[in-house]
Automatic annotation (TrEMBL):
It comes from the Bacteria. Keywords: Isomerase. It comes from Thermomonospora curvata (strain ATCC 19995 / DSM 43183 / JCM 3096 / KCTC 9072 / NBRC 15933 / NCIMB 10081 / Henssen B9). One of its GO terms (molecular function) is isochorismate synthase activity. Residues 1-21 are annotated as: Disordered. NCBIfam families: isochor_syn. This is isochorismate synthase. Residues 153-405 form the Chorismate-utilising enzyme C-terminal domain. Its EC number is 5.4.4.2.
Length: 415
């Protein structure tokens, strides 16, 4: 575990109720930001009290939970609100592939939050004079140059065709293939600008930032509040139309599509199977709903349940990830095919991203509709998008779907 200097002694944390701060992203003092925002509420943070790096392996969520628990143990906490998200907490982001290193948990220095009529500022470590002082104004990215990622559009369609052949041959039922794009800016990319644009345009999504990974995911993997858990399964997608009538037509076609309903059922059934052993009751509707976002239309299934024991949100993540929505089914052959055909390291794209507090509460999404800023060259970033592939998938249609899923991050860069 790598710790910042402030964490060499037991943690101290003080939460203060404050007046409504308005736009949370407007108070981030510098470009290096942490965030989790939904409908304008949530938490943003900056600074680093402690950083836990988590190696790949089958028990990485358990490993992360144990090390975080050790760090929180003995912390001196002054928290009059005692709400989920107040007091000290950690933001986290895990790699998609369980075998890959690069997962991280970060305990920030300052946390600004707003939820359900309450607003607060948490400081971990020694208090500072004015933590909300803007040290560097946000600077929109300029001089953007876009490039193909690991595979060209043509080569990616060939990979999709190969996956369809394998599925039709009976190797597996579904896989999910992702592709990337690159962007180069004239100056280092300011996380705050991307966050502000994403939160404004996609308020129903969960806008996040953790250690250079920024995005607006529509998929809530798990929310734990006490013994209650909630999830939102998304699988089956079509691009938006150009008129309300075309949107309705596309939504109806998506809902009636045997291919998309089958793709969605794989994901919903897996979530049901993973959560049932952890819950005293679990509600998973048998039919999906339609979820319309500014760029795409999804099939969606909301899931609600009550935990049977004191499982933290990281315990539930361990049971869920990777879901068929981002990997495929069965998991092992789907993951093997991803490793073979994508020809790239997803890193933390399509992995869990979110936060956890000292009581094990938290909200975690799947890192979709996102970009990762290069750690060595902050003027560069990679954008990611992926599509579920089943037996009757069409490579050209999947490419169009991926292009639609790139739009949120492209718009965030271009303004």
């Amino acid at each position: 575990m790598k710790l910042a200097a402030e964490a060499t002694t037991p943690l101290t944390a003080r939460t203060q109720p404050i007046p409504d701060p308005g736009d949370l992203t407007a108070h981030l003092p510098h470009p290096t930001a942490l965030a989790w925002i939904h409908h304008g509420e949530g938490i943003v943070a900056w600074g680093q009290t402690a950083r836990i790096t988590i190696p790949g392996g089958p028990h990485r969520f358990t490993h992360a939970a144990r090390r975080l628990s050790d760090l929180f143990a003995g912390a001196a906490i002054d928290d009059p609100l005692k709400l989920p998200g107040t007091g000290p907490l950690a933001f986290g982001s895990f790699t998609f592939d369980p075998a890959t290193d690069g997962s991280v948990l970060i305990i920030p220095r300052h946390i600004l939050g707003r939820r359900d009529g309450h607003a607060w500022l948490t400081t971990i470590g020694a208090p500072t004079a004015d933590p909300l002082t803007l040290t560097r104004p946000p600077a929109p990215p300029t001089g953007l140059r876009w490039g193909e990622g690991t595979l060209s559009a043509h080569d990616w369609q060939k990979a999709v065709a190969t996956a369809v052949d394998r599925i039709q041959g009976g190797d597996l039922g579904k896989t999910v293939l992702a592709r990337d794009l690159t962007v180069q800016a004239a100056q280092p990319i300011d996380t705050r600008v991307l966050l502000s644009r994403l939160a404004a345009r996609y308020p129903t999504c969960f806008t996040f930032a953790v250690d250079r990974l920024i995005g607006a995911t529509p998929e809530l993997l798990i929310r734990r509040t006490g013994d209650r858990i909630d999830s939102l399964v998304l699988a089956g997608t079509t691009p938006r139309g150009t008129t309300p009538g075309e949107d309705r037509e596309r939504a109806q076609r998506l809902y009636r599509s045997a291919k998309d309903r089958r793709e969605h059922a794989y994901a919903a059934d897996m979530v049901r199977q993973a959560l049932t052993p952890l819950c005293t009751d679990l509600h998973v509707p048998h039919r999906p709903q339609i979820l319309t976002l500014p760029n795409v239309i999804h099939l969606a299934t909301p899931v609600h349940g009550t935990l049977a024991a004191q499982h933290s949100v990281l315990d539930v993540l361990a049971a869920l990830h990777p879901t068929p929505a981002v990997c495929g089914t069965p998991t092992a052959p789907a993951l093997d095919l991803i490793r073979e055909l994508e020809v790239m390291d997803r890193g933390r794209y399509a992995g869990p991203v979110g936060w956890i507090d000292t009581d094990g509460n938290g909200e975690w999404g799947i890192a979709l509709r996102c970009a990762e800023i290069d750690a060595h060259d902050p003027t560069r970033a990679r954008l990611f998008a992926g599509c579920g592939i089943v037996a009757d998938s069409d490579p050209a249609a999947e490419l169009a779907e991926a292009q639609a899923k790139f739009r949120p991050m492209q718009e965030a860069f271009q303004g």
